[in-house]
């Protein structure tokens, strides 16, 4: 079994994070964090999971901006990690952090019922 998809996923995650930090200057883009990347076995597609701080409309707009810039990201990834065919990128909103935060809030309410404000 090949570990190439996992290595490719890590390289893509690192490069997209670097591009977001240093190259993408769109003011409409919210605070975006790359939480994970899944690459198909044939290395043709990569799902890039992102967490975006902000309201729902800001999150949707950030995902749309990222998807529109997917071609740029793909060409840069191909150039930076020196692969002949960089995978097609699909950006997905990762809501697992929101679920974790909500679970922590509920546990806090259960453990500290006196802290509840009416």
Automatic annotation (TrEMBL):
GO terms for cellular component: cytosol. One of its GO terms (molecular function) is ribosomal small subunit binding. GO terms for biological process: maturation of SSU-rRNA. It is found in: Cytoplasm. PROSITE patterns: RBFA. Pfam families: RBFA (PF02033). Its main location: cytoplasm. Coiled coil: none annotated. Transmembrane segments: none annotated. The keyword Transmembrane does not apply. One of several proteins that assist in the late maturation steps of the functional core of the 30S ribosomal subunit. Associates with free 30S ribosomal subunits (but not with 30S subunits that are part of 70S ribosomes or polysomes). Required for efficient processing of 16S rRNA. May interact with the 5'-terminal helix region of 16S rRNA. NCBIfam families: rbfA. Belongs to the RbfA family. Monomer. Binds 30S ribosomal subunits, but not 50S ribosomal subunits or 70S ribosomes. This is Ribosome-binding factor A. The gene is rbfA.
């Amino acid at each position: 079994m090949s570990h190439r998809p996992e290595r490719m996923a890590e390289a893509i995650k690192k490069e997209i994070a670097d591009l977001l930090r240093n190259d993408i200057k769109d003011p409409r883009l919210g605070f975006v964090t790359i939480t994970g990347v899944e690459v198909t076995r044939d290395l043709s597609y990569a799902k890039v999971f992102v967490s975006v701080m902000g309201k729902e409309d800001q999150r949707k707009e950030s995902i749309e901006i990222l998807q529109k810039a997917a071609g740029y990201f793909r060409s840069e990834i191909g150039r930076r990690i020196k692969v002949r065919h960089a995978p097609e990128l699909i950006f997905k909103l990762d809501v697992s952090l929101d679920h974790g935060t909500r679970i922590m809030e509920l546990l806090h309410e259960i453990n500290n019922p006196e802290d509840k404000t009416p």
